[in-house]
C-alpha cells in the first residue's frame, strides 16, 4: 500500500524495483488516470541520481557568476561532500547576514507522508540553526484567504461546505462559478478518496430526476460544464464582479433581493446598495446593461440569472481560479455578497461554498476539520501547505515547531506573503502594505527550496531568473531535474514517496493510510528526513538530536499512529494496533449521520446574536470598516469594480488582443507528472496546447496542430494550437505546469505559461499572485526546436 496526491495505490515490487501498480479500491471510490504517473515518473530519465553542483559554484562558491545558472555544466559529488558544502554555506550566511537572509519558505506540493515532509523539515532544521524567513498564504488561495476573514470571520477556502447529501436533496440550482471540480477534485492535499465524483454523478441523476439546474460561469467550457452538460455562461476573464453586481441590482429592482436577510445578517448593505444604484462616488448604475458591456454576457441573460437566483434554492459554488487575478480579492467578497442578496445562507441546499472543487470538499467526513483562519499575526499563520487539517482523530504530523523544549521552538520568523518573493529579493528593507499592516522586506541572500518548483509556479519566469541572480546560493532538493533544479547551484536528490516508509491520511479523514516502501531509492537519492539529518550531523550532535529527538523515521511513523490511537481510545473509537494497521495498510473511520446533514452557517442563521461570526460586527461584512480604514485604492471598503491591469476592455488590447487564462492541468499536478507519458495525452507537436476560438484562429490563419508563438512584453513561449469553441471569443487558455525549456534567446520551447503572467500583486490587501494576462499569438514558422528539459542536464568531470 502506498499513497499520493492522486489517490492510494498498491504497488508491485520486484528485486527492489517498482514494477507495477493497481488502484487501492478499498480506499479510493473513483481511481483516476493520474495515479499511473506515479509509476511512470519513478524511473523517468529526469530523475536526479546524485548530489550535483553547478561547475561555476563548485569553483567559486557563493561568489560565482550567477548568470551562469542554467547554463553551466553540473558536477556530481558524494553525499559527504554535499552535506559539508551545504552546512558550511548555511553557517556562513547565518554568521555574515543573520537568519532572515535565508529563505526557507519554499512553497510547493511535495508528496504526501507525515514524516518526510520536506518543507516542515526544512523549517525544523533552519529553526534549530537560528531561524529563517518564511512565507504566509498560498499560491492557491492568496486572495480568498486574505479577504474572507474580514467578511465572514473564517478562512473560507478551508471551511466545511454544506454536505453533498443536503445539496442532492434540496438544491434547485447549482451554480459552478470559476471552478472546474471534475478536473480539480482528482487531486487532494491529503490523499483523495475521490468520493466527490460519486456525488457529481448523483447530481447528474438529480438533473434528470428532480430537474436540478446546473449553471457554469467561466471563460472556458470546462471539464465540469461538459460532464454535467451544464447551461454554460461565457464570461470575459476577470469581469465577474460587474456580472455579480448586476445580478444583485436586477434582483433588487425586481423586488426579489432578500431584504430581511440583508438587514438581519449583514453589515453595510445600505451603503452597498447605494453604490449599486449609482449613488456612490462613481455615479454608475450597476444594472444589466452596464455589466453586459464589460463582462460579455448579454443583458437579458443577466436578468434571467437574477430571476432564477431570486426564486430558486440556489447554491453558489465558487472556485479559486478567478481570485488569481488583479483585484482577485473582490471575487469571493462579491460572491458572498450575492449569496446574501439571495438570502439563503445557512439553509439546507442554499447559500455558497468555496471548496467543492478541492480535495473532496463537501463530502461528509468523520471529523470536523476546523480549518485555520488567516491570523493577523504573521508569524502565527501558516499556509495550507504546511498544515494538515486539524481533524480528529487527527494524524500527527511533524511540525515546524516540534515538541521538545529549546529556544528555537519559539523563533519569531519573518513571514512574507508567499507570492511576493521576487519583490522581497529586489527590495530589501522596503516597507510595504500587506493585509492592513506594514511589512518590511528582509534581505535574502540564500534560498533553500524543497518540494516545490518556483520556476513553474511563480508568474513572470524571466523576471524570476533575473531576480534570483541576486541570491548568492540557491539550493534545490527534489526528485527530478525540474526547471528549478536546473537553475540551482546545489541539487540534492530526494527519494519519491514510493521509495520510503511513511504514514498519511485521506483528506476527508476517512482513512489513515500506511505507506509501504515499494522500491529501493533510485541511484543515490535519499529520504528528505535523512538529508536534513545528514546536514545537521555536519554541524553538531546537539543540532542533530534536536532534529530527530532520538527517533528514526520508522519510529516517527509509529509515534504518529500511536498518538492518533490514544486520542481515538479516549473517545471510544476503535483502532487496531500499529502492527495490524501496518499489515492491512489502512484504518477506516465511520462517517456519522450528523456529517451528512451539515449545513454551513446554520447556527448563525438560527441565532446571529449568540452565534455571531468572527467579524467586528458579528455579521457578514458587505462593508468592512477594517479594510476601509486601511485606505487601499486597490481594495476599498466594499466590493468594488476596478478595471484590472490587463483585460479585454483595456487599451493594451491594441497590442495584445487575447486574454490568456491558465487553469490547472488535467493530466498533471502543476508541473508534476509532466515528465511522464501522460503529457502525450494532450501535447500538440510536443508543445503545451493552447485553446483558441475559431474566429480568433481564422483571423490569424491558424489551425489545430499548428505550432504558435504566444507573446507579450514579458516573454514568449511556443504552444500547440487547438481550435475550439470551448473558449470564449477573445480568450485563449493554456494550463499551468508545462516545464520551462528556454532557448538561448529566452523563448520557452515547450510552453510554460508563467513566462507571460505578470508578477504584480492582486492588491495591497492580499498581495496575491495572478494567473491571467493579455497576449498575442502568431504562427511559428521556424524549424521546431528540440526539447531539452525532459532529459538529463549536461555533466562535466570533476575539477
Ligand atoms: N499561471 C499559473 N500559475 C500557477 C497556478 C495557476 O493556476 N496558474 N496555480 C498556482 C498554484 S494554486 C499552486 S499550488 C502552485 C503549485 O506549484 P508547485 O507546488 O511548486 O508545483 P509542483 O509541480 O507540484 O511542484 C512540486 C515539486 O515538489 C517535488 N517533490 C515531490 N515530492 C517530493 C518529495 O518527496 N521530496 C522533495 N524534496 N521534493 C518532492 C516535485 O518533483 C515538484 O518538483 O502553482 C501556482 N502557479
Ligand atoms: N488535475 C488537477 N487538479 C488539481 C490541481 C492540478 O494541478 N491538477 N491543482 C490543485 C490545486 S493546488 C488547486 S489550488 C486547485 C485549484 O482550483 P481552482 O483554482 O478552482 O482551479 P483553476 O483550474 O485554476 O480554475 C477553475 C476555473 O476557473 C476558471 N477561470 C479562470 N479565470 C476566470 C475568471 O476570471 N472568471 C471565471 N468565472 N472563471 C475563471 C478557469 O477557466 C477554470 O475553469 O486545484 C487542485 N486540483
Ligand atoms: Mo494550489
Describe the structure.
This protein is of the alpha/beta class and 799 residues long. The protein has 27 helices and 29 strands. The strands form eight sheets. It has a six-stranded mixed β-sheet. It has a six-stranded mixed β-barrel with strand order 24-28-25-27-26-29. Residues 368-405 have low confidence and may be disordered. The site of one ligand MGD has 35 residues, from helix 17 and strand 18. Its cofactor is Mo-bis(molybdopterin guanine dinucleotide). Its EC number is 1.7.2.3. Residues 658-770 form the Molybdopterin dinucleotide-binding domain.
Shape: globular
How confident overall, as mean pLDDT?
93
Biggest sheet features? 6 strands, mixed
Structural class assignment: alpha/beta
Small ligands present: ligand MGD, molybdenum atom
Query: How many DSSP E strands?
Result: 29
Key traits:
799 residues, alpha/beta, 6-stranded mixed sheet, 6-stranded mixed β-barrel, 27 helices, 30% helix, binds ligand MGD, binds molybdenum atom, Mopterin_OxRdtase, Dimethyl sulfoxide/trimethylamine N-oxide reductase, trimethylamine-N-oxide reductase (cytochrome c) activity, Prok_Mopterin_Oxidored, metal-binding
Question: Could you provide a short overview of the structure?
Answer:
This is Dimethyl sulfoxide/trimethylamine N-oxide reductase. The chain is α/β, with parallel strands linked by helices.
Topology overview:
Elements: E1 2-4, E2 7-14, E3 17-23, H1 36-42, E4 52-54, H2 55-60, E5 74-76, H3 79-97, E6 102-103, H4 118-129, E7 134-136, H5 142-151, H6 164-170, E8 173-177, H7 181-184, H8 196-209, E9 213-218, H9 223-228, E10 231-234, H10 240-253, H11 259-265, E11 266-267, H12 269-276, H13 288-295, H14 299-311, E12 314-318, H15 329-342, E13 351-353, E14 415-417, H16 421-426, E15 431-434, E16 437-440, E17 446-450, H17 454-457, H18 461-468, E18 473-478, H19 483-486, E19 490-493, E20 502-505, E21 511-515, H20 528-539, H21 541-548, H22 553-570, H23 578-584, E22 586-588, H24 593-596, H25 602-606, E23 620-621, H26 625-630, E24 658-661, E25 689-692, H27 694-699, E26 707-712, E27 715-723, E28 731-733, E29 772-779
Parallel strand pairs: 6-17, 7-14, 8-9, 8-12, 9-10, 11-23, 12-13, 17-18, 18-19, 24-28, 25-27
Antiparallel strand pairs: 1-2, 2-3, 4-5, 4-19, 15-16, 20-21, 21-22, 24-29, 25-28, 26-27, 26-29
Helix pairs in contact: 3-20, 4-20, 5-15, 6-8, 10-13, 10-14, 10-15, 13-14, 20-21
This protein binds ligand MGD (2 copies) and molybdenum atom.
One ligand MGD binds at residues 108-111, 116, 118, 139-140, 324, 450-453, 456-457, 477-480, 482, 494, 497, 528, 662-664, 669-672, 736, 753-754, 757, 771.
Amino acid at each position: 500500500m502506498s499513497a499520493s496526491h492522486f489517490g492510494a495505490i498498491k504497488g508491485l515490487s520486484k528485486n527492489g524495483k517498482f514494477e507495477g501498480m493497481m488502484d487501492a479500491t478499498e480506499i479510493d471510490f473513483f481511481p483516476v488516470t493520474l495515479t499511473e504517473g506515479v509509476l511512470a515518473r519513478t524511473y523517468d530519465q529526469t530523475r536526479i541520481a546524485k548530489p550535483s553542483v553547478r561547475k561555476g559554484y563548485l569553483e567559486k562558491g557563493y561568489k560565482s557568476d550567477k548568470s551562469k545558472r542554467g547554463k553551466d555544466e553540473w558536477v556530481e559529488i558524494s553525499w559527504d561532500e554535499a552535506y559539508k558544502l551545504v552546512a558550511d554555506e548555511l553557517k556562513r550566511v547565518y554568521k555574515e547576514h543573520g537568519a532572515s537572509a535565508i529563505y526557507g519558505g519554499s512553497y510547493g506540493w511535495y508528496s504526501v507522508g507525515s514524516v518526510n515532509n520536506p518543507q516542515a523539515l526544512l523549517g525544523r532544521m533552519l529553526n534549530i540553526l537560528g531561524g529563517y524567513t518564511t512565507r504566509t498564504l498560498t499560491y492557491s488561495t492568496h486572495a480568498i484567504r486574505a479577504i474572507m476573514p474580514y467578511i465572514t470571520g473564517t478562512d473560507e477556502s478551508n471551511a466545511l461546505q454544506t454536505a453533498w447529501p443536503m445539496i442532492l436533496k434540496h438544491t434547485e440550482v447549482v451554480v459552478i462559478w470559476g471552478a472546474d471540480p471534475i478536473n480539480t477534485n482528482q487531486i487532494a492535499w491529503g490523499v483523495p478518496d475521490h468520493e466527490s465524483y460519486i456525488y457529481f454523478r448523483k447530481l447528474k441523476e438529480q438533473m434528470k430526476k428532480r430537474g436540478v439546474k446546473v449553471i457554469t460561469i467561466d471563460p472556458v467550457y470546462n471539464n465540469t460544464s461538459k460532464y454535467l452538460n451544464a447551461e454554460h455562461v461565457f464570461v470575459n476573464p476577470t469581469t465577474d464582479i460587474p456580472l455579480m453586481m448586476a445580478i444583485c441590482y436586477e434582483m433588487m429592482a425586481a423586488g426579489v433581493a432578500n431584504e430581511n436577510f440583508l438587514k438581519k445578517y449583514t453589515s453595510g448593505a445600505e451603503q452597498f446598495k447605494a453604490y449599486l444604484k449609482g449613488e456612490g462616488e462613481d455615479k454608475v448604475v450597476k444594472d444589466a446593461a452596464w455589466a453586459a458591456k464589460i463582462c460579455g454576457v448579454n443583458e437579458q441573460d443577466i436578468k434571467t440569472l437574477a430571476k432564477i437566483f431570486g426564486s430558486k434554492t440556489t447554491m453558489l459554488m465558487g472556485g479559486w481560479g478567478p481570485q488569481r487575478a488583479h483585484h482577485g480579492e473582490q471575487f469571493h467578497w462579491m460572491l458572498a455578497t450575492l449569496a446574501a442578496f439571495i438570502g439563503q445562507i445557512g439553509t439546507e441546499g442554499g447559500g455558497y461554498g468555496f471548496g467543492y472543487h478541492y480535495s473532496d470538499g463537501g463530502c461528509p467526513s468523520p471529523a470536523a476539520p476546523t480549518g485555520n483562519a488567516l491570523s493577523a499575526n504573521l508569524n502565527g499563520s501558516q499556509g495550507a501547505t504546511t498544515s494538515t487539517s486539524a481533524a480528529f482523530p487527527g494524524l500527527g504530523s511533524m511540525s515546524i515547531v516540534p515538541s521538545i523544549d529549546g529556544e528555537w521552538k519559539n523563533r519569531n520568523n519573518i513571514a512574507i506573503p508567499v507570492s511576493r518573493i521576487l519583490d522581497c529579493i529586489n527590495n530589501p528593507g522596503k516597507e510595504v502594505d500587506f493585509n492592513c499592516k506594514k511589512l518590511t522586506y528582509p534581505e535574502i541572500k540564500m534560498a533553500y527550496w524543497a518540494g516545490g518548483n518556483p520556476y513553474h509556479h511563480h508568474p513572470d519566469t524571466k523576471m524570476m531568473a533575473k531576480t534570483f541572480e541576486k541570491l548568492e546560493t540557491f539550493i534545490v532538493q527534489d526528485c527530478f531535474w525540474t526547471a528549478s533544479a536546473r537553475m540551482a547551484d546545489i541539487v540534492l536528490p530526494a527519494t519519491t514517496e514510493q521509495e520510503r516508509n511513511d504514514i498519511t491520511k485521506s483528506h476527508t479523514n476517512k482513512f489513515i493510510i500506511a505507506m509501504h516502501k515499494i522500491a529501493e531509492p533510485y541511484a543515490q537519492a535519499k529520504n528528505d528526513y535523512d538529508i536534513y539529518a545528514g546536514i545537521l550531523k555536519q554541524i553538531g550532535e546537539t543540532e542533530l538530536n534536536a532534529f530527530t529527538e532520538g527517533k528514526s523515521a520508522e519510529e516517527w511513523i509509529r509515534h504518529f499512529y500511536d498518538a492518533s490511537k490514544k486520542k481515538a481510545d479516549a473517545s471510544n473509537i476503535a483502532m487496531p494496533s500499529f502492527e495490524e494497521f501496518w499489515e492491512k495498510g489502512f484504518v477506516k473511520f465511520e462517517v456519522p449521520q450528523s456529517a451528512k446533514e451539515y449545513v454551513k452557517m446554520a447556527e448563525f442563521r438560527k441565532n446571529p446574536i449568540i452565534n455571531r461570526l468572527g467579524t467586528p460586527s458579528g455579521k457578514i461584512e458587505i462593508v468592512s470598516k477594517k479594510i476601509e480604514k486601511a485606505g487601499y485604492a486597490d481594495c476599498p471598503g466594499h466590493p468594488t469594480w476596478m478595471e484590472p491591469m490587463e483585460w479585454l476592455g483595456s487599451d493594451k488590447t491594441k497590442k495584445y488582443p487575447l486574454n490568456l487564462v491558465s487553469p490547472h492541468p488535467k493530466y498533471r499536478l502543476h508541473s508534476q507528472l509532466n515528465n511522464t507519458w501522460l503529457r502525450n495525452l494532450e501535447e500538440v507537436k510536443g508543445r503545451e496546447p493552447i485553446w483558441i476560438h475559431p474566429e480568433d484562429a481564422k483571423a490569424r490563419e491558424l489551425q489545430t496542430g499548428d505550432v504558435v508563438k504566444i507573446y507579450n512584453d514579458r516573454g514568449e513561449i511556443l504552444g500547440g494550437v487547438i481550435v475550439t469553441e470551448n473558449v470564449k471569443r477573445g480568450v485563449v487558455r493554456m494550463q499551468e505546469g508545462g516545464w520551462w525549456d528556454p532557448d538561448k534567446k529566452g523563448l520557452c520551447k515547450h510552453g510554460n505559461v508563467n513566462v507571460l503572467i505578470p508578477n504584480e500583486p492582486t492588491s495591497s490587501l492580499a498581495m496575491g499572485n495572478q494567473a491571467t494576462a493579455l497576449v498575442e499569438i502568431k504562427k511559428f514558422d521556424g524549424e521546431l526546436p528540440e526539447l531539452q528539459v525532459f532529459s538529463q542536464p549536461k555533466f562535466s568531470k570533476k575539477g
